[in-house]
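Quick check before the chapter quiz. The format below is the same one you will see on the exam, so make sure you can read both the input and the output lines.
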Amino acid sequence: MKKFLNLLKKEIRELITRQLIFSLLFTLVLFYFIGQLAKGEVKKAAAAQEISALDLDGSQFSNELIKGLQSAKFKVELLKEKNKEKAIDSVKASDTNLLLVIPEGFGESVSEFKIKQIDTYTFLRSFSISAARNSAVFKAVISAINNYLSNDFLKKKIPEANPESLKNPIKSKDFVIVKDKSAEASASDITGLVTSQTIFVPIILMMIIIYSSNMVISAIAMEKQNKTLETLLTVPISRASIITTKMLSSGLIGLISAVIYMVGFRSFMRGLYGDIPASSQMSGVIQKLGLSLNTNSYIILGISLFFAILCALAMAIILGVLAEDFRSAQTLIMPVMFLVMIPYFIFFLSDVKSLSLPVRIFVLAIPFTHPFLTTQNIFLENYNAILYGILYMFVVFAILVAIAARIFSTDKILTMKLRLGRKRIQM
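Here is the expected output.
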């Protein structure tokens, strides 16, 4: 046991480097910085939008229209220019990005129930995502204008009626049913809320699997390149212990990295979306539908993630044996990356149940697919699917460990090489 612990300490010391510590701290700071930046942009989007307006009509309708925009929480700046060209030059020299031009005759056309166009100008000062928000602002402006004019007309024609009741005589009362639980809510709101709270699971899983696998492959490749692996194999300790210490040390470092990534990513998501349950006041609905993770849920999720990591590390050990040196080890991580990214993208783009049978079998045969589905299965109480997924990953892990142990028990570990230029394995 003492030899095993000493070997484990040796593996951990080799994995913890200044570069690793610096990269983890940099990642944490980067996520926090991006989160704060996103938080600032979200606040800007939620704040009153500034719009410059040129009223060439000067009618009662146009004045009421400006007031209607102000009541809709738009910050309207009235321009005193006499024509559209001068107004464009004025706004171009300012920091405002939106210009609304009400043409002459607008009020007369509205009073006669004729369609009259208004001109909207968007000044693109950059091509960022925040700049693209201006078009959405103008859509909100047009919607506010149409809503105001239609309400005004209905009030004048039918004073005793409520304009909103006339325009929208039918209202829906939405309910969501999950298994045997029901609650009054919108399906899109529930889906968005659950996704925002669990989106970090597949992202962190992908990061930790790729990161831990890369560490194992690189470590074995460096030992082969520096000839330290030959010395290690002569130590009076079982080959199975060598495999176990490499997997355990990489798993521990990967777990620490996952925690750091999770803290940083949650900081980023909070900056981007804020405290969603509190702002949407749907935490009670989520609890009623059973769509929140409790202690038992996290334990089940942790077990599933743990077996996925073990499968990745066992696969990485076999691939690391094929590496000739450190440089070739960076290429050998690609198979693991592909196997992780396939279920990763399917998780965001589609539902596994909606795939054709051959594709579904292929996707479920990838051991990393099952942790991606664990959170969803917990919410839907599909515990049999979770159990079968964990058992399948355990079988895959046992097979991979048996293969790795067989390789380590012979001298092939020192002679196996994958030369991509010759496209064949030499033994």
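If your answer matched, good. Residues 41 and 130 are 7 Å apart (CA to CA).
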